[in-house]
Amino acid sequence: MHAAPTRIGRVAPGAAEPGDFVSAPSVRWLFTSRAAGVPWLVVRVLLGLAWLRTGWDKVFGPASAAWMEDGAAVRGFVQRAVVASQTGEHPQVAYGWYVDFLRFVGDHSWFFAKLVAFGEVAIGIGLVLGAFTGIAAFCGVVLNFLFVFGGVAGENPAYLIAGILLVLAWRNAGWYGLDRFLLPAFGTPWQRHHPWARGRVEMP
């Protein structure tokens, strides 16, 4: 027999529990137990440091002017992606709607360059500290998808997989971090009684 894992982040009775999408004890342990917070801590910190390093270089590094002044880095990315969408029978950028989106980004590169740079720093800090881990990981996943759709592979697929797993482990990935205190304080938006309605996530 498998002992029932100690679960964290219980919600109010009758509320939906997104963590219950699996029933296998080992998977349930991985995504809901406190003990699994230890390996998630390693994944979270490593991924967070990677995001923090890349974002920090954009904001303060030698190439920061291309990100923080005129957005030249984003314009260059957009131009390469647009060219890639028109090259060969199987272009790297295959979606017309995404090319249109990139052109919009290129026209406002001064804004999106800063958004990406500071966003990466914020994602890194959130993951390292374990503060709103699920939200930080989700934002990282969105950026990874945008880069991959733009024809840039590199480390993005690995970051993407790690980010998706952290999103699924939102309950316990930040247990050894600030989420131990933030999740009970703020609750979750799909609860029947969220904090703005005087509800809380119950922690055993």
From TrEMBL:
It is found in: Membrane. The chain crosses the membrane at residues 121-147, 159-178. Coiled coil: none annotated. GO terms for cellular component: membrane. It comes from the Bacteria. Keywords: Membrane, Transmembrane, Transmembrane helix. It holds the Pfam family DoxX. It is a multi-pass membrane protein. InterPro entries: DoxX (IPR032808). This is DoxX family protein. It comes from Carbonactinospora thermoautotrophica.
